[in-house]
């Protein structure tokens, strides 16, 4: 009898230990998505996940990269929103979601981007790719290069549309990285927030496939995807009370389930975490002397906003400090990284943000140095 009681007690204790270890290892809520991730957009911290590195097809979410490269091309002056783009036979031949471009049809680059961002138009995506890079193949090469640059280690692109193709895949984590990068671009945000739009003089109406723009308060961006192989997919971002979260769900099983699962994850995240704003982007935190420079001193700025994301109610014991050299040596470029702004909580480092120079400082020449020395002598002690 004693042995039986001892056995039951041991079994109960072991069961509680396993349950507790599982709870600690995986506090994220359950989801019907095959893989999912919740990331805070400020510094990329993962708040919850389910098989975040699982490789799988992502359907039209491929167009997130198409939009990012197109937006960067506009920012860099390679193309203009007002450019007139002539649709090729190849672009017009795309199936699936489309705006039914005719070969040789002319449309503005801006309208094509809106068609990609709202209606997920495959023909518009290829037209955009060809206008930016000359061909879809060259554009895809740029897509894969950008993925590598962003640290998207488990992603490979084959086309600019997301139409089924062997060897095209990504992960929930990689798509969160991509969306986090895209959110930095005002033009991307503008495109992603368009709910409806009219083409061809009002004859063709576009509606955004990201229904969270209507259904979830604070939604600021998103891109859907669906094929039989990929299931229902969605990468999106929402902002409430200064906290911006990114949710990616891949392989959801039935229509609208990608919206339902995303909303569930957002509710989970916003209920448990808060943003603690500390410094804005471009805040001056120091002024350092410059050796051998045309200017004697240079201001030091934060390279991005400093926001600490913490569990709700755990916003005490935060300290901040600069990690900088005593002086700098010219020449210096504007925006050159020279140190770090370090955020600690309870004595532990939680965040490290680069500090950069506010302006360029050229190296002084011999005569300028001589004049500076002369001024110091004549001023006296």
Automatic annotation (TrEMBL):
Pathway: Cell wall biogenesis; peptidoglycan biosynthesis. Residues 273-363 form the Peptidase S11 D-Ala-D-Ala carboxypeptidase A C-terminal domain. It is an enzyme of class 3 (hydrolase). Residues 1-25 form the signal peptide. GO terms for molecular function: serine-type D-Ala-D-Ala carboxypeptidase activity. Substrate binds at residue 223. Keywords: Carboxypeptidase, Cell shape, Cell wall biogenesis/degradation, Hydrolase, Peptidoglycan synthesis, Protease, Signal. One of its GO terms (biological process) is peptidoglycan biosynthetic process. InterPro entries: Beta-lactam/transpept-like, Peniciliin-bd_prot_C_sf, Peptidase_S11, Peptidase_S11_C, Peptidase_S11_C_sf, Peptidase_S11_N. Its EC number is 3.4.16.4. Pfam families: PBP5_C (PF07943), Peptidase_S11 (PF00768). The active site is at 60 (acyl-ester intermediate), 63 (proton acceptor), 120. It catalyses: Preferential cleavage: (Ac)2-L-Lys-D-Ala-|-D-Ala. Also transpeptidation of peptidyl-alanyl moieties that are N-acyl substituents of D-alanine. Belongs to the peptidase S11 family. Removes C-terminal D-alanyl residues from sugar-peptide cell wall precursors. This is serine-type D-Ala-D-Ala carboxypeptidase. It comes from Ammonifex degensii (strain DSM 10501 / KC4).
């Amino acid at each position: 009898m004693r042995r039986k009681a001892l056995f039951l007690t041991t079994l109960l204790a072991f069961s509680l230990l396993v349950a507790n270890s599982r709870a600690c290892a995986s506090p994220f809520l359950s989801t019907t998505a095959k893989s999912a991730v919740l990331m805070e957009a400020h510094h990329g911290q993962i708040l919850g996940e389910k098989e975040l590195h699982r490789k799988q097809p992502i359907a039209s979410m491929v167009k997130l990269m198409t939009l990012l490269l197109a937006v960067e091309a506009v920012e860099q002056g390679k193309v203009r929103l007002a450019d007139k783009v002539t649709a090729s036979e190849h672009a017009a031949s795309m199936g699936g979601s489309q705006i039914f471009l005719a070969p040789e049809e002319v449309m503005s680059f801006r309208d094509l981007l809106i068609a990609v961002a709202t209606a997920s138009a495959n023909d518009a995506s290829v037209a955009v790719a060809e206008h930016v890079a000359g061909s879809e193949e060259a554009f895809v090469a740029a897509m894969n290069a950008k993925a590598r640059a962003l640290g998207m280690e488990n992603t490979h692109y084959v086309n600019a549309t997301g139409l089924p193709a062997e060897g095209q895949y990504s992960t929930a984590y990689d798509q969160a990285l991509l969306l986090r990068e895209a959110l930095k671009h005002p033009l991307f945000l503008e495109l992603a927030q368009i709910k409806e739009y009219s083409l061809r003089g009002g004859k063709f109406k576009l509606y955004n496939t990201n229904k969270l723009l209507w259904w979830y308060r604070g939604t600021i961006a998103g891109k859907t995807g669906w094929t039989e192989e990929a299931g229902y997919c969605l990468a999106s971002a929402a902002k409430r009370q200064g906290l911006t979260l990114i949710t990616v769900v891949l392989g959801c099983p039935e229509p609208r389930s990608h919206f339902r699962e995303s909303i569930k994850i957002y509710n989970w995240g916003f209920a448990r975490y808060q943003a603690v704003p500390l410094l804005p982007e471009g805040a001056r935190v120091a002024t350092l002397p410059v050796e051998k420079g045309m200017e004697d001193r240079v201001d030091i700025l934060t390279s991005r906003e400093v926001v600490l994301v913490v569990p709700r109610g755990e916003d005490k014991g935060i300290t901040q400090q600069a990690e900088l050299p005593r002086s700098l040596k010219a020449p210096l470029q504007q925006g050159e990284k020279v140190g770090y702004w370090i955020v600690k909580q309870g004595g532990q480092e939680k965040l490290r943000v680069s500090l950069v120079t506010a302006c360029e400082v050229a190296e002084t020449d011999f005569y300028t140095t001589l004049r500076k020395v002369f001024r110091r002598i004549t001023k006296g002690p």
